[in-house]
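Task 17 of the worksheet. Students: predict the tertiary structure of the chain below and write it out as structure tokens. Keep your answer in the requested format; marks are given for formatting as well as content.
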Amino acid sequence: MGTRFTVILGFILVAYSFLLFHLYEVQFSQGEYYQAKAASQEFASSLLRVKRGVIYFTNKNNERIPVGISKDFPVIYAVPKDVKDVKAVALLLASKLDIPVEEIEKKLSKEKDPYELIGDRISSEVARSIDNLKMKGIYVTTEPRRFYPFGTRAAHLLGYVGPAPQGTGTEGHYGIEGLYNDYLAGISGALENKKITQPVPGKDLTLTLDSNIQNEAERILENLVAKHKAEGGDIIVEDPQTGKILAMASRPGFDPNNYREAKIGNFLNPTIQEIYEPGSIFKVITMAAGIDSGKIAPDTTYVDTGTLTLNGRTIENYDLKTKGPYGKVTMANVIEHSINTGAVFAQRTIGRDIFKQYVERFGFGEKTGIDLLGELKGNIRRLSSKEKDIAFATASYGQGVATTPLEVINAIAALANGGKLMRPYVNAELAPQVIRTVVTKTTAGKVTDMMISAVDKAEIAKIKSYTIAGKTGTAYIPDFKKGGYTDDVINTYVGFGPTKNSRFVILVKLDKPEGAPVASLTVVPAFRDLAQFILNYYNIPPDRLDAEQGEPL
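Model answer:
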């Protein structure tokens, strides 16, 4: 037994000594050949490397704030054929890097590859410790990588830079990085017949997003989602006069600096790549269609009984159990109290064909044309001659039709802009573009007055000394498995101001808040906070004065 143990122990000691010998060889043997070869490879690589353009946000003073830059990070790479003991080197690297030893071994075993990236964006401390080991075939250098100084801010809009699909180099994925990749990337240098073609740097890109408004929108959205334990949410801020997007934020988000840790679904931009039923915000579109077509006026009346039955289905007001029927009301009252049956009355008075024409004029069912990748168009297929009247009736208050959040805010922005529908955009080099006039300036003014009255009566979104127009939307989420609707809701609020010369339109959307509260309890206070911030930020003078005293209200 003793002899057997001694033999085994001796064998282990010999093997361990052999491993130590190889580790010594790996760490301290420094042939000039390998150093010169690695140095020449790195020098050639740096000559051919192209610098990606910087992405900027701006602010009210037209100062540019970099939000997507190139920054040098330590990287570890290998020349596999120069590595003498793959297992020993892999063990050493694995002890320094958070990478499985098997993964490193696999890369070091590719003897025909002249370059294998082992570790990217390594900390300076780890890079120094590996460099001090002086392992043959393993080199430490710095290479430019995309860096986003503000982390998760506007991540969906920006996208990220990652490996190209063909396996060589990097390119932009999603958002601005993806759409403007060729513009930002430039042209890499080349080495042919011992002749170097110099690289062409990428161009810088300035966006319309205001860094301060974006930051406040992100803060408000983060708090809103957390407070109501919601699945997610969105905020968009648009300049109605031009179509410039001033802020665009969504939750859940991701950090483009660490995009590998995010779920693939989080890369999609919900403001343009997800559709939902907007709810009562659509009543504003219904009223605009009726007033502009001459079928109704703000003071047109009807008698509300609280319910309405069409094609065997009964529509009722959301507050029927607490408020009961409203009786004789005007169209302005319909917007103030968000009366479902009133919206149906308006739609049926307008007629199916005219109603559909105005829905399409406002941009629903088509892409807005924003310069971002992957925009979807809303779904208004139920507004078809083959459908029953109930489909048009529910559409009048925003159920049964689906839109993107950007479609919603852009349609309301048309009312804030005197009836002109603008093309939204984020590249500051683009010029404002009118898509079409959707209603007359007079109609836009009348509908705006109805929305102002709704804000004043509800008071939650009201801001002293300013005219603010807005409309809530609380829509139940369809049950795509069983049919009908679930108990979950999506809350939306869209508003603009000051209405005498609107400087902003804000959309706040909250997905599945816990307990399915109405929009007035969730997104409306968030809207007010952001609107107040923008009024202060731009130092916008009050537009609402008391007629008798000449004092702000």
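Marker's comment: The mean pLDDT is 88. Residues 78 and 378 are 50 Å apart (CA to CA).
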